[in-house]
Amino acid sequence: MTSSELWGPESAERYDAEETEMTSAAVLGATVDFLAELAGDGRALEFAVGTGRVGVPLRERGVPVTGIELSEHMAAVLRRKVDEDTLPVVIGDMATTVVPGEFSLVYLVYNTISNLLTQDEQVECFRNAARHLRPGGRFVIELGVPPLRFLPPGQVAVPFDVSERHLGFDTVDTVEQLLVSHHFTRDGEDGRYRRGASRHRYAWPAELDLMARIAGLQLERRVADWDGSPFTQESPKHISVWRKSA
């Protein structure tokens, strides 16, 4: 069982069209370069593979990829792109589902570890990554830095996008470390907006490092983005790499 919210058929069908920036060559090129270098001549396992935004181009690069995905609807969209032999997918949650074999790389991108809404589940996700890694293998996470610096006293919401077709803001519960992302997306040209929301448990980089240590992993590298730019106190997100002892 998992606390993650399940993506339904409508959300799965819209996902690729609504994430055009994240599927651009500029974003995916650097992402795939980063992951392919870490995978080397080994296999990669993607937790929450979704519609294959990253897994499919990484497989096209020549890295054997297997995916774990909670939503059958998201996996069905992926299956239209590649067949099961090319990119196998196991339906299950990323904290407990086990697939056969060892991997040189396990990765979890685009804030998805925050979909696990308890600290215990996030710790189990690290343990599950370590369980699948061969000695010397790496676990990679892409995660936003909690936007608490933007919260003045008395304010509970932080805008993250104000554009022509989308309004987005986060509301934050600092006691439970829970964040709700609210989305207002304009569909069509009639001026109507579709409202959506998703819940997340945010975690600081130092908290993730402790989770990694519990799982037997050590921090190897932390950067601000897939291009390897330095991580600083101004960075809105981080790419972190933990290594399993050889």
From TrEMBL:
- Kindly list the organism's lineage: Bacteria, Bacillati, Actinomycetota, Actinomycetes, Kitasatosporales
Ranges for domain Methyltransferase: 45-137
**Protein name per UniProt:** Class I SAM-dependent DNA methyltransferase
A GO molecular function term, named singly, is: methyltransferase activity
What Pfam families does the entry give?
Methyltransf_25 (PF13649)
Q: Which GO terms describe its biological process?
A: methylation
Which residues constitute the signal peptide according to the record? none
Q: What's in the keyword line of the UniProt record? A: Methyltransferase, Transferase
